[in-house]
């Protein structure tokens, strides 16, 4: 199904679309994170809607979506044609709200850090920069999974750890109003050899 066909399913006066490179937790971890969001919602008296499990993700590189989205996606695909990265394991064990105003993101993070995502993102940004592809990857990067947004701030709270193997990176169009992710491309990470290195 084409991007235009997907958008035609959403009937609204305006459609807000974002373009991102992202990584998603596997099904089991996504269910665990969704459960943690619902538990926090009840415990803290939050009113924000918990993100659906199939839309939970960790944003790696955001892009400004131009008028010619197809050409833009092809440029990104070409830039990452020879890009490689190894599979690694990720785990989150706590939640907290980001500071700010309005609807604050309630995010899942790790007390031990998520170093694998720093290396993954650095490789992606390097490949995009070498190809001259514009992006909005800031120098500061705090890997996290957004569980919901709510006006009330939640202090750091431990949750049951959710772990998964990071096996791919996806180029995704996010249709905000329709709460839908449209996967344009996907890059599999290299499996690990028995000695722990990339095969």
Provide a brief overview of the structure:
The protein is an alpha+beta fold and 199 residues long.
Describe the protein:
This protein has four helices and eight strands; from the N terminus they run αβαβαββαββββ. The two termini are 34 Å apart. The chain has 199 residues and is of the alpha+beta class.
Characterize the largest beta sheet: strand count, sense, and whether it forms a barrel. Answer: 4 strands, antiparallel
Listing every helix as H and every strand as E from the N terminus to the C terminus, the arrangement reads HEHEHEEHEEEE
- Total helices: the number is 4
Q: Tell me, what's the shape?
A: globular
Head-to-tail CA distance between termini: 34 Å
At the first level of CATH, the class is Alpha Beta
* Name of the CATH superfamily: Cyclic phosphodiesterase
For the biggest β-sheet, the strand order reads: 2-1-7-8
Fraction in beta strands:
25-35%
Mean pLDDT, to the nearest integer, reads 89
- Rg value: 17 Å
Named at the architecture level, the CATH assignment is: Alpha-Beta Complex
Low-confidence runs: none
CATH topology: Cyclic Phosphodiesterase, Chain: A
The tally of structural domains comes to: 1
**Helix content range:** 25-40%
């Amino acid at each position: 199904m084409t991007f235009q066909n997907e958008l035609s399913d959403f009937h609204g006066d305006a459609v807000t679309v974002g373009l991102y490179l992202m990584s998603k937790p596997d099904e089991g971890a996504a269910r665990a994170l969704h459960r943690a969001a619902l538990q926090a919602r009840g415990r803290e008296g939050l009113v924000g809607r918990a993100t659906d499990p199939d839309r939970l993700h960790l944003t790696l590189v955001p892009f400004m979506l131009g008028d010619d989205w197809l050409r833009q996606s092809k440029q990104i695909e070409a830039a990452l044609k020879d890009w490689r990265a190894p599979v690694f394991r990720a785990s989150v064990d706590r939640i907290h709200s980001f500071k700010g105003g309005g609807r604050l993101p309630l995010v899942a993070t790790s007390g031990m850090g998520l170093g694998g995502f720093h290396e993954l993102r650095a490789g992606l940004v390097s490949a995009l920069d070498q190809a001259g592809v514009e992006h909005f990857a800031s120098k500061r990067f705090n890997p996290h999974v957004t569980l919901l947004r709510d006006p009330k701030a939640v202090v750091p709270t431990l949750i049951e750890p959710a772990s998964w193997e990071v096996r791919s990176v996806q180029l995704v169009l996010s249709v905000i109003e329709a709460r839908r992710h449209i996967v344009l491309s996907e890059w599999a990470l290299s499996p690990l050899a028995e000695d722990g290195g990339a095969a």
